[in-house]
Each structure stands twice: as C-alpha cells, then as structure tokens.
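Apologies for my clumsy wording, but could you write out the amino acids of a protein and the tokens describing how it folds?
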Amino acid sequence: MTDQNYSADDIQVLEGLEAVRKRPGMYIGSTDERGLHHLLWEIVDNSIDEAMAGYCDKILITFQADGGIAVLDNGRGIPVDRHEKTGKSALETVLTVLHAGGKFGGGGYKVSGGLHGVGSSVVNALSTTLKAKIFRDKKVWEQSYTIGKPNGEIEVTGTCNKTGTEITYYPDDTIFETLEYNLDTVYTRIRQQAYLTKGIELSIVDERKNHEKSKYRFYFEGGVAAYVRHINEPKSAISEIISTEAVEDDVSVEVALQYTDAYTDTILTFTNNIYTSEGGTHLAGFRMALTKTINAYAREHGMLKEKEDNLTADDVKEGMTAIISVKVPEPQFEGQTKSKLGNSEVRGIVNRAFSKEFSAYLEENPKEARLVIGKCLLASRARLAARAARDTVIRKGALEGLTLPGKLADCSSKNPAESEIYIVEGDSAGGSAKQGRDRRTQAILPLKGKILNTEQARLDKILANKEVRSLIVALGVGIGEQFDISKLRYHKIVVMTDADVDGLHIRTLIMTLFYRYFKPVIEGGFLYIANPPLFKLTKGKQSQYAYSDEEKDEIILSWGGSLESNSAKNPDDVSALDNEKLEEVVKKVNIGIQRYKGLGEMNPEQLWETTMDPEKRKMFHVTINDAEAADAIFDTLMGAEVLPRRKFIQANAKDAGTIDV
C-alpha cells in the first residue's frame, strides 16, 4: 500500500561528499579491486595533467608499509590561496567539493584527462585519511582529512626551494572489498602513461609489508612509436613502424602503427592520456584514413582489380598494432568512465594527419606496401569464405534445433538470465555433468579433444572446426560481422576442464577463442571457470573435499586433533615436520585420500555437489583488467613465434603451481 504521508521530509539531501560514500559505484565504477585502482588513477592523472601542461617531469608513487599510497609530483603545486566562491582554500575546495578543479576552462589546463572534476574529492571521500602536502611559494603547506572532512585549516609547516604536490591517502576498508593493490596492473598503467607523455619520468616504490622492497622507473623518449614496438615484441613484423605527429586547431594527434603476420589486431586509443576502450571519433578518423589510403594505393598499382570490391575496415586491420593518441582542449566523453570520445571535429583532424603520412610511406616503401596490401587481400578472401561458412553454420543450427555433433544437452529454461552452459572436456565428464545437472537451468556441451588454436587461424579456418562450430551455435551470438551479444542464450558460460596439463591446455584454447572472437562476452561478465576439487578425504562416515594441497593438509591436521610428531630431527625443518605429522595423522586416524585426476572420475552426484550446485560450487569469474597485458600474454603463449614463448616459460617456470610428470 502506498504511504499517503510521503512529504518533503522524506527527501534525503546528502551533504558534501556523503553522496560519494553512499553510492561509490557511481563515481569509481565498483568497490572491488578495479575501483580501488581507480582511486590511484584519479590522483596520478592530476599529476599527468601537470606534465601535459609542461610543468612536471617527475612523478613518484609509493606504496607505504602502513597501507598508505603517496603520489608526489614536481608540478606547480595545487593553489592554496582563498577561493572566492567557496570561502575555503583552493586546496580544500578541490578536495571537498565535487566538480571543482582547474579543468573547466580558464588558465588552469589547456588539455587534461580530468573532465568532470570529481577525482581528488572522490578519493578523499573514500579514504579514512588523506594528507595533502603542497610545495609552493617557497613554503610547505599541509592539511589532513578524515573521511573527507578537514581536520583543521591549511597551515604552513616549513620552507622549501621546490614546487609540487604530494597526496597520501588510505582507502577505507569499510567501502572496498580489498585493499590489496596489484602491482602488475599498476606497472602496466604507469608504463602506458610514460609512453604517452614523452620525457616524463614515472617511478614506483613498494614498501609494503610482506612485499620485497622494490623500485621501478619508466621513461621513454619514443612516444607512441616506442609503445607499438613494446606491444609487438613477441610478434613478427612485416612493416616498419609508421608514425605521425600533427597539430590542428589546438588538437594534437600522435599515431603509430605496424603490421605483423598475426591474424588479430591490437588498436588502443587515448584522449588526453585517458584510455578510451570504446574508441570514438579519433578511431573513426584513423580507420577512414587507413581504409581509403590502402584502397587507393591498391587500385592505382593494380593489386585490386576493377571489378573487385574495396577492402573493408576489417580487412585492412588484420595483424595491425596501432596507437592513436589525441590531446583535445574540450573533450566530450560519454560518462565519467570516459570510454568513448565524441568530438566530431577530431575525426577529420586525425583523418587528414594520418592519410598524408601513411600515403607517403606506401609510395616510398613499395616492397613493404605490397606485403601489407597482400595480407589485406588475403584477409578479404578469408572474410568472404568465413561469411559463407558462417551462414552455413547458422542455417544448420536452425534446421537441427541446436542438436549438433557437439552433443549439446540444452536446458529447458529459455530465460538467458537464469540459464547456464557448461563447456566440458570429453564425453566421460560430459556424461556425468548431464546426469548431475539441474536440467531446467543448466546446459552441457562436451568438446572432444583440443580445439583449434584460434590465435593462429583466420575466421574461415575457425568455422571449419567442428567443435568451435558447435560452440558458436550453442551460444547464439554469431561470430565476426554478425556477432550480437544481445542474442546470448546463457548468461553464465562455465569452462569446466580437468586440473591436469591437458585440461589446462584445453581451457587456454577456449579462453583464446573467447578473447579474440567473443570479447564482449568476457566484458559483459558472462564467462566463468569451474573450480572442481582435487581431493576427497574420508574418515569413517565423514567426508570432505579439498580444492588445493594446502586445504587437504589443513583438513588432515584438523582431523588429527592433538596428534604431534617428534620425528623431525631438525626443529627448523618445518616442511619435514609437517610431512611427517601428516603421514602420522593419516595412518593413526585412518584417513582415506582420493585424488581426482579428471572430472570423469566423479559420479554425477559428486560433480553436482562440488562443482555445479549454485549453493556450494566455487568458480572463477573471468575479467579483462588490462587489454594491453591480455593481448601480450595471448600473443606470447598462443602465437606462432616460439622464442618469446620459450623465454616466458624459462622466466616463469619456478612459479608454476602444478606440473604433471
């Protein structure tokens, strides 16, 4: 029943930064690890803006032992004088008022990544403590905050002969699900910023407890051309790096690209050093220039016949790595996440700048031009063959009602939101899964053997693979030009393979397929990896599953109660003591240990109880935290080049968790 007394008194007004703490996801996207890192990006981006403005060339990020994160730059220092409108110091205004900053016009910044002006204030709101130290006017100014509120007025605490800003913040553990920063994620982002801002030195120091103290320094003079070279390290290039820089109407453009013999492309776009994952007008201008220039050259030199259709944007991007970076005075982004650029004028500026440089390169390097266009022509023929094969797959799927050679056992529910599909390794595990599943919401698709390595194949070859075709039809989204995420038939896609080397290889092949051809499925949060147990332990009528060796040992010792072992001769030899104690407990308590080598060893009831029951199962959610890092690892591990893969294995073998003998 509707409350008839609903009045103005029921309207809640959140003062200051309370709205940020009430709905943090609106400002930083999430409160998981991704949101935690977003705090750091907001502070670092402010220092990067100083660098782009020409006032800063050094930025230091320190992960402190006490849990604080400090960002120090040698820029101009945030102003500390009184702000006429707020009556507070400019520093306090920036740190406590949403949409307050030096990036809305005027003389603060010509270009910047911070469009909305909520960065520093949001970090302040979501931190238990924030300390600001400003080096300006030969003085050191300081002010501290607790949960977004100042502990007192800004004050002078010393003198200095430098300028800059140091922000130290402590993320609030009542807001965030984790306070553990991933250094690999930080390194990748900071390296990226160093490539995009020539001549800037970015350093990272890790002083945290339980971490080895380390310092990393990033400095690149080569700009985006050096960035392309870095990405293409594991690949075999068929062209030189083609780069251009231009400025038109205060918009600066920097583009670099290189063709390799790979079948997939890597295109990263940036606006004011902010990664625009969905592209925008700068990407549209680049694609227009690329496609038009290649078609013009191919026709002029007789490589594209008169009756042949022009090459498409998809044809000309195969095997290409490209970085498009623009600096725009008044960027128009879609939303706070800044994922897509909307400035219409940028399209033409990028088009003109790159067309001129790329056309000149092709004319001056005819041998490489023929290699590049030859690759584009092959991609075009493969696209046409793939279209015919795809149409056949779709027709076949419709005629056969999705009952394909892949032995899909569909669920009865037609609601994608509650439907799941398990991609299972082999008929044996598939049989157990089909019998143990919830037939209403869980579908089972067994795949026979190892599917095609899609990192080294074009779409036409992929569609010729029987197992891949079964998966495409089962998902319902299509592939390539006809891909449509809205037609996804299951909102949980679970990869369920054995825990041995073969199972992990099959999982990697499936993950490669999804990353290269169904990436929106991962980005939409629909892909998972099952986590079946490795052991079943029994003691009398009592049984328990263990998902790791460590968990198995803990269960054994807990069942052993107060049993101790005195057989270890060296008190410092903990591993020997533990092993002897475990063996003693197993014998004295009569514990049975079953090691599952494959899913097929489980009966349907066990598979349901441990891996498929939504109330009890454990699964890993697959996400893409960093597109560049993901591209690099797939290129290294699944690409055609052997040497980078060998180096990776040699460098990381000591960290391998399990190796089958």
